[in-house]
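In response to reviewer comment 3 from the previous cycle, which asked for concrete evidence that the modeling workflow produces usable outputs, we include below a single protein chain processed end to end. The sequence was submitted unchanged, and the resulting structure tokens are shown without manual editing.
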Amino acid sequence: MASMSETAPAAIFIFTEPLAGWRHVAVREQRTRIEWAKQIQELLDVHYKDAPKIKLVMDNLNTHSIASLYQAFDPETARRLAKRLEIHYTPKHGSWLNIAEIELSVMTRQCLGRRIPSIAELSSKLAEWEQARNQNQKGVDWQFTTDDARIKLKRLYPQFKD
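The workflow returned the following structure tokens.
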């Protein structure tokens, strides 16, 4: 969430397909279940309309759930969208594992280093950033291996005794 002033906060939603060097950024006044569901609908019906299934990796924020789709849409629409999702949640305190967080960090450094007075201006700046980044097909150089995960996340793996 990017704060624009004491009275005008904004929520930034970001989706990324790292191997394709693609990302999409949307700005909303709030970060609610309904807003999240609308972003998922756009992702599925606009950006990936021909994909039978989308894999999402995201944090465990309470709005990031299939239940949000049912709050936002009629049951038929919610079910249609839900069937096309495969959701994987990053471990609690593991948002650094989420590649979208890397994109947010880059976006913050490149775009949000100053006060932005309105949601309209923020949307415009982020659209320019998105277009330039997508045009350059900037990917994410993900270097975290399975072996790294076994070391870093050792406490999450089951322990077996001989």
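The helical segments are 33-47, 66-72, 75-83, 99-111, 119-135, 146-152. We consider this sufficient to address the reviewer's concern, and the full set will be provided in the supplementary archive.
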